[in-house]
Fold each of these.
Amino acid sequence: MDIKKLTAPCGLACWACAYYKDNITNELAQQTAETIGIAVKDMTCGGCKSEKGCSFENAVAGKEGCLTKKCVESKGLHNCSECNEFPCENLMPVVDMADRAPHNTKVYNLSRIKLIGLEAWGKEAALIQEKYFKGSFVYGQAPVLDDESK
Amino acid sequence: MDYLQMTASCGLDCFNCPAFLARENQEAMETIEEFSKEYGIPVEKMLCNGCRNHKGQPPAAKYLFDEDYRCSVYECCNNKNIKFCNECRDFPCDNLHPYADNANKVPHNTKVFNLCLINKMGLECWAKEKARNVKETYFTKPFTLNPSSED
């Protein structure tokens, strides 16, 4: 797997996304396509940096497109962690859609990339996403997955 | 305001927290009263002077957990003799992991963003110019990939 190509400029792990071509199910594609108003076949995604780009870009960002992606590309960078303005408004965490979309993992991912490098982060990225969505709240600590608490 | 004393090791801005503001601010008090009902914690146990002033054991945590309970971030920073996680060679570690659970109730998903901003802007500047905006944006603004075109 080409981690460099499959990591979005904002620090999301495209290969761990439920809509990535190797992960998507027919059921999910149909449900979501209806919700966001695009064709079912267009739900399948090759990653943000693929030719077609993220399947959600038009639905979430409109015709202007994703600001983070445009910014990183215009600066000739691979991702926001390389930017001297990191982290800027484009990466601001928000509660809205927190249970469905992984935007609140961006700055954590990017900071991990800064710390251990893209390749090493790539090995933990899927677990970060799983813990984000499925982990239970523990005061002052990391989220706990069910199988960890047993 | 002593911003160093009133910012938790994890990067949360105690000085903007309703549990700190409630004694003097009616809106903050209403938030605390809602929390109190929802979690079954008496209002007086919710009122807080900031994480550092309670040595990593805010009254609500003390009420919910046992006497020996300490926040692992506070303890870790204390043991390493650093003020904030962003000074640590392991930043950011698992203790600052974001999560969806309770995301709409408590501000854990702003910690790493705040700590990175403190690195970038300095504590005073972040505290005075940005911290409130981060918290308000986090709790009230819609998810977007075009933040600068909002407002």
Note: The mean pLDDT of chain B is 94.
Amino acid sequence: MAPLVFPDNTVLCSFAAVNRLDLLNGWLRGRGRWSAAVAHEVDRSSETLADLALVRQEGWLGEPVEVDDEASIGRIETIRRVVFGGTAAKPLQHLGEAQTCFLLSEASEFIGAWWITDDEDAYEYAVRRRIPSYRTVDVMRHLVADGELTAVAAHSLMRLMADRDRGLFVPERASELQ
Amino acid sequence: METTSERVRRLIEESGITQSAFAERVGIEPTKLSKSLNGTRRFSSTELALIGEFARVTVDWLVTGEEMAVATAARASVGSSSETVLALAQEYSTMRADLATLGYRQGWQLPEPVSLRGSWISQGQELAESAAKRIVEAGLNVAGDLAGVIERVFGIDVAVCELGEGFDGLAVATAEARLIIVDATPIAARQRFTMAHELCHLLASDDQQIHTDPDIYSSASKRGESEVRANAFAAALLMPEAGMREWLQGRRLDEALFCELATELRVSPSALAYRLENLRLIDVGTRERYRTITGKEAAAAAAKSTVFAQAGADSMTPKPPASLVADTFAAYENGQATLRPYAKLLGIDSRNLRRQFDHVEEAGS
């Protein structure tokens, strides 16, 4: 069975910024999931990137995954602060990352799922914790390999994402996407 | 025991708005809120964070009903002059407690408790002697970097930060943290006196968790018993009797020498004047004359204006707590945390910090 995929708000925003969420959705092929806090972050981001509203409306990532047992909630809160640098006084700060990290590393039904993030801190941490982790650049490489995009087109899209203030890793040359 | 639902219900009552208005303002579906309050469903992680953000309470408190006293104090201080320092105290104390869950403990080493008998002043002096002994044994002295001395000798964290007008410092003692926070001020002597004052509160275990000192020189401060002790401690630690008598031996304590001594010890002329009078080294009239000298004037008289200027620059420089800096970086290096907690302590964005870490200096280019 193909692993589930948890794209975070940074990645969804990158594709929304160039009006190509359809590419990401096609690549996910129904495998996409999101935590409730990521859904909340996406809702807020949709105020500036209108395309993002489609993610919830079309159900691309399914029902947001909720965590409601108190031990897990406490654990997420600790991860949010000590791993991602959130403060106790701002409970929503980095909550999406903390929930995703918890689900992918400590919730048995999601261990082995992929985390897609363009946040350097989250990506580096996840790689070091051996959580299967990818960035938009990796999604683009898959899309090129699948014949959905040429390397040049994928590279152009990534440069456009960067031009639109999306902080993501963009390879120097299109050939690096092949 | 109160449940999460009951705590949320209490917050709704305290908010003075209806349940449905509360749901709307927080951003939770009213039916979900109703079911959670009635116990037919549980609150989710995200809902509790939304409620916490709105009602200014922590998720830990919503889940357990417990929180550090410093968190309670921080919440109660919103809008007051102590808001900044208590928010910082909450943040550092929480970081310390969280790092303990990763295996990083502060490991303070306090001197053996002294008997704390006799007058408050003599108790302060006795504590100061005990502390001074530890400092000397470590091969250090208090005339230099006092924050560094406190951190190295006692393992107590010291932070320097702008605390807003009229707030000198604070001491925190929690299960996982021993911390002093002092105001960033150009008057180095005042900052050093505050650090020593707060050190006494921690060594004497004056308060359960948190001790705030808006103004250590205020008349109210001088009346409080533990404040009298802390001031006596600071005076004795920073202006040790034996050391001063030795320094003064064979010399006439005139105004020029007084200014030199104040500059040498890095204390305010006012504090030194009172200390010398208490030690019967000057009379009351001389004390009254000397105590009106400013630190800047004393430094100029001692031909140490440059030293005074640098000390003011140093005491204005923010400083994060040393053990937090060390342990957040260790947690990052060991793959247990992102770079963000360390970057936050340094007051820098983690992306910028990463760029600077990755930058290879081209020596000679």
Note: The longest strand of chain A covers residues 5-7.
